[in-house]
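All the exercises in this workshop are built on plain-text protein records. A record pairs a protein's sequence with a compact description of its fold. Read left to right, the backbone structure tokens trace the chain's path through space. Once this layout is familiar, the rest of the handout is easier to follow. Here is such a record, shown just as it appears in the course material:
>
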Amino acid sequence: MPEPTRQLAAIMFTDIVGYTALMGKDSNKALELIRISKEIQKPLVEKHNGRWLKEMGDGSLSSFNSALDAVNCSIEIQESARAKLDGKLRIGIHLGDVTVEEDDVYGDGVNVASRLESIADPGGIYISDAIEKAIRGQADVQAKLLGEVSLKNVDYGVKTYALQGVGLPVPDLEEEKQISGRFVAELQRRGVLRVGVAYVVMTLLLILLHREAASWITLSDWSLPALIVVLISIFPIAMFLAWNYERSPEGFVRTTSQQSWQNPYTASQRKPLTSNFIIVGLILVIIVMYIYPRYLSSKEADTEVTFDDKSIAVLPFVDMSPEGDQEYLGDGLAEGILNLLTKIPELNVISRTSAFSFKGQNVNIPTIAQKLGVNHILEGSVQKSGETVRITVQLIEVRSDKHLWSETWDRNISDIFVTQDEIANAVISSLKLTLLKDAIPKTSKTDPEAYALYLQAKHLAEQKSVEGIIKAEEIIKQSLAIDSTYAPSWNLLGRIFYLAANNLGIKPVIMSMEIARTAAQKSLALDNDNVSAYAMLADIALMFDWDFRAADEYIKKAFNLGQGNEEITIVAANFARNFGKFDESIRLYEKAIKMNPVSYGNYSDLRLAYLMAGRLDEAINTMQKALSFNPNAASGHTRLAEILVLQGKFDKALTEAEKETDEGWSWYARSLALSALGRYDEANDFLSRFVDVYPQNGAFQIAIVYSFRGETDKAFEWLELAYEYHDAGLIQILHFPFFRPLHKDPRWNTLLDKMGFPKD
């Protein structure tokens, strides 16, 4: 016998009103009603892709994979019943978790649908809030909130809606139905809240218009108070009219009438001048008339920058060489100076990623400073001819628009490191930092040819493209063949293999992490103060080795060397996030964002911290901010879809999934969103594609889908594969909300033990 399975389904219950009484009076007529009812209902259930499960006396039970199919079917059943059945039907529908065994279905989802049917009006259709959310936005289906209902044998209140339309009855709420929140529901149904919002917005606009008029013509002192009194006096009248009347194709009708219940108009059409377009338009006018002028005036009056005086961004140095082939040298020189400045605790230094994001753009210095939140900009140029390099640098204070310092050096390429130190010391002196300029760490030296190759490899690696990474690996190995004692070269080799495996997926993960680890260790052996090397070792220990003690030690060692490094700040934030220290994690992500304020990745990481902490609205806002920096980022819209699924906004989740630019991520996101909507055939199609193409790299995501759907065995099967493949996503599972349904299963703790998570 097949094993019972759990699934999400739309359950529809129907019964014939007054059947029991009729059976006592005329059993033949009662049986005839049952026969006609079945003839009406069963073909319609099958027409709408449903399953006719069973009959229970005068009632019937059906299930649907789609909430919309269930609702459309119920409407058509009532329409046919009114024409063909000498009696009336009640219908209740709920979307919930059910257990399917052969041709039967049972569970909480069935119980709620049954109870909704029992309180529905003769000829009416009652649905739960889960169904209403799933069909929301369907222009041809309208449902009105009745309130929260206490249902028999259901230990929680169920928000209940009645379907509205031609032929459907106005709900009879006089009888005892244990409905709470009726007043709020009626405010919503009659559009009173919408009218109230529109009235308040219009009132604000009239007050602002009065102010503008007063600047052009002379008005009495009492005119504004009089206007406010009149507006306040009219408000109760507007609310009374909104409560009692609405617009319909037949003119204005009472909100308690049958015409109101059958009104096909939308909410904004029922209440003239309250459409979203009008309200938003009025709000925009208010913004223009009030907020924006004050913003401009404050900008004009403000002579002080709001940013820390000891803040700086080092822009990439412009290549002025005749051949225009020294861009990598200019980038390397700027980054070398930036790395030296990050070691100064008093100085807030913007990261390379943000500072270099304006490269090649025609953006002026004040705008760059405003976007990065700094008061100082260091810019320069390089011009190489043979072995000689001319370096020109200037330090600008944005607040005063003053050049604090500028200088030009003509040096041999072999002296480039000394020049970096001199520029960094000049910046410290110009900013009048209390730290003695001689205390700045000195840069290490290497062979000029090896250094040129290092800069070229780094320039290519920062592009984070497949072609760039492959070429960067080749060039950095050439550099190390010339000089294997230069610590940054080993660190770059490790980063190249890390990016190749983790970001681009072009190298085997375990092999690449081993090479990256070895390279970082060699870099530390040559330079024990290399924070970037500690950051890489901490990241590998955390994400791939699952050696949490080692990761913690590397993080502490890196922070002891100085906390101005974005890489180690992100690793520390990841560590805190994955172990449930959300406040600390969020603080660290915000610190990283301050260093790198235009980073898609930093905002995306912060989004995950908010998601794990259950702060879903903040997660949405943060992810939208991330996408503002990179609208086409792979997995960006997928991350939004995940949050929306957790919020129960399934239609919006599907919309975001359909926006996803990466094919694989789109398949995963659609399978998750469609599963949430109960559209399993479509969901399984996308999930099958994802499994076929990404059985290894996508094991963690596949487990998410099965866990969300309640298919526990399959979820654990794919989590085991993720463990076998050493999927970095597994580090998130302690607090990842999609896996909460698995926590009570004994296999959950077994997996945590295998990964080495500490005991609570």
Remarks:
- The chain has 32 helices and 17 strands.
